[in-house]
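ARCHIVE CARD
Drawer: 12
Card no.: 0347
Subject: one protein chain, sequence and derived structure
Cross-reference: see card 0346
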Amino acid sequence: MKLVRPNPASEHARGEVLRPQDRAWLRQQGVGPAGYFGRLGTFGLPMRDVVVFRRGRRFDFARHCRGEEIERRKVLTFLAHDELGAPIDVVAWDTANDTVACWLGLVGLLGLDFPCPGIAGDPLVVFPDPLAWLKADRRGVVIVRPSLARQHLLEADAIRAADIAHAGAVESLLLRGLLPRITVPASSVRRAA
């Protein structure tokens, strides 16, 4: 039996295109056309889909969940890319409760393929949520999975957050104990005493 590797681009494309009322809602929130259509074809379009949120900021597409008693959520999805532009995962955003999750668990930052329009040395713009990111025409990133985002954030020369509270949350992510717990055998503790 041959294992089929999930294809984020084709799975994302199975969603529905945004309806006029979806685009109207985004415009009411302050998102311009470049936020949801992209600029000069540089971004993929967000899609509508139905998902089931799981632990660890992950989700499954509801179309893959058969016979389960689960809560299905209508979301907007984005195709996430790596730094070189290759599609690596799908990110779901539940606009009702601002939940963000990824399908395969491979993406830490949404927008990594086009993090900001500046030059080297400019701060990496980190947005607190997808709505703020879309309002800024996707010029920056959104944290999806903190454990994976941390590596990219530590490589940035500088980071620009939305406000003081958001800066504190990003700093906490960078400083908090994402390192593995270190243990020693009980016998070595007795010998040291």
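Annotation on reverse: The mean pLDDT is 86. Strands lie at 16-17, 47-54, 58-61, 73-81, 87-94, 99-102, 109-110, 124-127, 141-143, 159-160.
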